[in-house]
Specification:
about 160 residues; single chain; 11 strands; Immunoglobulin-like; alpha+beta; two-stranded antiparallel sheet
Length: about 160
């Protein structure tokens, strides 16, 4: 693998001196790039992702024994959050945020916030509910529209 493929330009690899072992001393920029290059090469050599889960007490612990790409890390965090019930499988992420709780009557309440200046549509993935502000009934799988900076408050029936 060439230096150019790793984003290291020839001018970055100039040494600024020689150490006692007669090895070139690189400038900080080149040192950082070579460390990153070694890490990238190591990660590319892995045949499988070293990610595993283990039950512990009442929960599960997920171990990540590799340096994952941002996409892989996002997928792992999403999967673990879905398994823990923190987010639903239809969760789309910011700017649409979902939160849930239980009211004093013991009913599940779901809040869907649109933290955006643009209207958004989301698929409702909870049990049939009443939208408490408008009184509308929303069923599982219905597409609901959130106006800019809007909130829906749903109470499961």
């Amino acid at each position: 693998m060439s230096n150019e493929n790793l984003g290291i330009k020839r001018r970055d690899t100039r040494s600024i001196g020689i150490n006692e072992k007669k090895q070139p001393i690189l400038n900080a920029n080149a040192q950082a790039k070579f460390i990153l290059a070694r890490l990238i090469i190591t990660c590319r050599q892995l045949q499988a992702h070293n990610i595993t889960g283990n039950d512990y007490g009442k929960g599960t612990l997920t171990y990540i024994g590799t340096y994952p790409s941002q996409e892989l890390l996002d997928a792992v965090v999403r999967r673990v959050a879905e398994q823990a019930g923190v987010i639903s499988s239809g969760h789309s992420g910011f700017p649409v945020i979902r939160r849930s709780g239980v009211n004093r009557q013991g009913r599940n309440i779901h809040y869907i916030f649109n933290y955006s200046g643009a209207a958004r549509e989301v698929t409702y993935d909870r049990r049939q509910s009443e939208e408490l502000i408008s009184g509308a009934t929303v069923k599982t799988g219905d597409v609901v529209k959130l106006e800019p900076w809007d909130v829906l408050v749903m109470e499961e029936k």
